[in-house]
Amino acid sequence: MTGDAGDMLSWDESVFRDESVFEIDHVPETFRHRESQLENLKYALRPAVRGSRPLNTMVRGPPGTGKTTAVQKLFGELGARTEVRTVRVNCQVDSTRYAVFSRLFEGIFEYEPPSSGISFKKLFGQITDRLVEEDEVLVVALDDVNYLFYENEASDTLYSLLRAHEAHSGAKIGVIVVSSDLGLDVIDDLDTRVQSVFRPEEVYFPVYDATEIYDILAERAKRGFHEGVIGDAELERVADLTAESGDLRVGIDLLRRAGLNAEMRASKTISEADVEEAYDKSKHVHLSRSLRGLSDSERDLVRVLAEHDGERAGAVYDAFNDATGLGYTRYSEIINKLDQLGVIDAEYADVEGRGRSRELSLAYDAEAVLDRLE
Ligand SMILES: Nc1ncnc2c1ncn2[C@@H]1O[C@H](COP(=O)(O)OP(=O)(O)OP(=O)(O)O)[C@@H](O)[C@H]1O
């Protein structure tokens, strides 16, 4: 019973055994229910271990289904072999060809390229020279590659990577592209010159079913909480709420926040109410993640949209222009990106007397959006 002194936390106590297992970039020790995907990825990467260029791979699946984790696990294993160099690039952060190659440079040389700025050609040359010199195979994972598409950088980036062995004889590079945007047809959206050299193996990550979600979260809770902190009914509830979107990140965030709520009450156990209360925040982890990757002007437009939700596009543009001084072309590009990201819905509609115009609406509650822009 709460309120009973025996159930109360003292100052130096915590419900957490290891809070870091609930952090966003934690790589879990056990990684179950992805056996066939790991097998397929290993198959594609096996030539690298033999010193040859691996097969290129395209990994797709909705958010929070273990794609990044699978790549991290495999890269961890491959990295233990000196002849294979692995670099994972987060394209949400590095969303141009130059930025991607700077990251590859850093991964290979273990220091950043000169900040004075060297030409792309030079950067590329230094990377490939080094690979040839050391006789290393490079495996590049372009994680969240959809961001390269939003910035129109995907074709150039892939073209350079895929043709590296022609431009620089002896360079062996394999690519894994990872996309969580199911509305994006990766191959179709590339230039034909890239399509002709990019025929990747495909590996799909479906959403986990309810039992798998429960199993994974139970394991995480066992590592993260002291024994007896979360009961089976509460864990079931967390799993059910997670299954609504299928994004495991929701469940992991929910466990952590529910734990913090229990601590706030100085309780040693998580109650149903701790879970319900936490869900209001946790259900938006995907939104928070999308917003975090945006530039200042992109965030400005989201703010304007939230403040003018439901108004016509003209009013939104005027307010954006007032706030940023940016013109219609940039406005339109950002609208497209936000639409692709699922932050807004942009639909063409016939408006009486004004022909066709775009109707914009936020895909989330305006208040939730504004809260996360603070
Ligand atoms: N099978 C699993 N076992 C344990 N934890 C998992 C498993 N699958 C995913 N996770 C956890 O779920 C969270 C999300 O996983 P991950 O980042 O790999 O998903 P993703 O598919 O790459 O998502 P996104 O497409 O949004 O980048 C991570 O915290 C990860 O540790």
TrEMBL record:
Residues 301-373 form the Cdc6 C-terminal domain. It comes from the Archaea. One of its GO terms (molecular function) is ATP binding. InterPro entries: AAA+_ATPase, AAA_22, Cdc6_C, Cdc6_lid, ORC1/CDC6, Orc1/Cdc6_arc, P-loop_NTPase, WH-like_DNA-bd_sf. GO terms for biological process: cell division; DNA replication. The keyword Cell division applies. Pfam families: AAA_22, Cdc6_lid. The keyword Calcium does not apply. ATP binds at T65, G66, K67, T68, T69, Y208, R220. Involved in regulation of DNA replication. PANTHER family: CELL DIVISION CONTROL PROTEIN 6 HOMOLOG, CELL DIVISION CONTROL PROTEIN 6-RELATED. This is ORC1-type DNA replication protein. The gene is cdc6.
